[in-house]
Amino acid sequence: MKAVEALQVVVGGEAGQGLVTVGQVLAKALVRSGYRIVVTQGYQSRIRGGHNTFTVRASVAEILAPRESIDLLVALDGVSVALHEKEVPATGLIVADRAWVGTNAPRFLGVPFAELGPQRMVNTLALGVAGALLGLPQGVLTAALDDLFGGKALSVVEENRQALIKGMEWARTQSTAFPPLAPAVEGPRRLMLNGNEALALGALSAGLKFFAFYPMTPSTSIALFLAHHAEKMGMIVEQAEDEIAAVNMAIGASFAGAPSMVATSGGGFALMVEGVSLAAMTETPLVIVVAQRPAPATGLPTRTEQGDLDFVLHAGHGEFPRAVFAPGSVEECFHLTRLALESAEASQGPVFVLTDQFLADSYRAVSPFPLEGLSWVNPMDPLKEIPLPYQRYRLSESGLSPRLLPGLSDHLVVADSDEHTEDGHLTEDLLVRKKMVEKRWAKGVWLKSRALAPDYRGDPNPDLLLVTWGSSRGAVVEAADTLKQRGKRVSVLSFPQIWPMVPNLFLPFLEAAEKVVSVEGNLTGQLARLIRRETGFFITQRIGRYDGLPITPEYILRHLPE
Q1: Does the domain made of 192-366 have the CATH classification 3.40.50.970?
Q2: Looking at the chain, which residues constitute the CATH 3.40.50.920 domain(s)?
Q3: Could you tell me which of 490, 486, 499 has the C-alpha nearest to residue 457?
Q4: Mean pLDDT, each 10-residue run in order, the chain (562 residues)
Q5: How far apart are the first and last CA of the chain?
Q6: Which of 385, 426, 420 lies closest to 403 in space, CA to CA?
Q7: Where in the chain is the domain with CATH 3.40.920.10?
Q8: Arch. (CATH architecture) of 6-172
């Protein structure tokens, strides 16, 4: 059977059946074998039961987004077969229990799970079958499995290892038309990371010392990752009683000199909003990660969307500057979170990282981040640069004032959430008020001068320009590549930083394109509307997705206006 360069595997079953175990081990083995991956996790808001999926798209070449068709469906229950059978083309294969499908059903490989091992081993047996069909080496799969069960009793490790081997041996005796993956070109070692893990690593590398949170999907795994490494990295992770307490703890820790971050989703961020204004008024550095999911209210807690851009842009009462970053890849989760901590420290105020469930849970094959020479934030200005007498909110043309930490110098550090004088004391002098508003707003000029330019790919005068932001970028780029193969002149403009928006950095691209279409994971085209507000350029044609699923290249091509 001729090998293929890319395919997509979906492991389906109920929560509690171990499908994430199958998916994670399979994904790790693929990465260790040299393949690129894109993982999409679909799960329901319950502990047990409910249909879940773990999708791994693998390729010998770079890939950026999930696809919709399924090449190999590994069904751990009958519901998975019923729900996804139509997504498997004639060239695909469905692996399921022989008791459900018999032995000769088209496109089916019926596995005698009951004969191969006990019921509790079905997921590991299925992993072995899938690994053999893909052509993965047994040693790589068993090593990945051992890593997962490394902390368990030796008997558990050995039982799973034997089940994996038994599944692989059985699959190798079967005759199917399913093509294995072509061997990957041996290259540099890569890590398997998802967006939340990379985001946490980026924060740690920038000097994060305090993280507060209240659990809320899909942001919680950031906290779990940081807590796992907190002692080694000399930092504190605090689970608060609610989001109001979490944001205020982080502001207090930052005021005392610990670079701080909070993470939540839209509903939790709604409770943090007053704290955003507190950080702005007290000019305290703070990074807020908002991992989006469908709303309003509880919405779809475990699905994805890009519906909170307007909310984050305008959250907080009063007028004050902010920066909003929107990673479009796992690598950008690392680098933009570093930049967010640096920007918060330098601008002495709130900075946002806007991600979503798809990117948060999506594993990729990532080259190790170069750590040599990376800087980390310095929470206090050098004493020799402090004008005397010390005034925490000294007026300046840039809006930036000298920042000392309480108790770490001979100077008194005074802060106030009410309007205040330069030395930090409460005031109702309206002339001082006017100057302080202008001082705080002036920091936006500093942020604007350092804003990242949008990423532009393609012809400088395209027939079609696709505009997007955040995690939708991968699907947009792949859709553009498909259109180019059809002879179209297509370009992509994606925004890794949404705010401050600097029109000179991207408006010429919009004006040079014959047709412009925005692609976003929301109904109203929130980025497109922001662009119109800031530039006057009206993007009339939009593709939006808001059913809880990530945008795919196929979705874009189906909905592309004529």
Answers
A1: yes
A2: 455-559
A3: 490
A4: 92 92 96 97 85 97 96 95 93 92 73 94 96 96 90 83 96 93 89 98 98 98 98 97 98 97 98 98 98 97 97 98 98 98 97 98 96 88 78 96 92 94 97 98 96 97 98 98 97 98 98 98 98 98 98 98 82
A5: 40
A6: 385
A7: 6-172
A8: 3-Layer(aba) Sandwich (3.40)
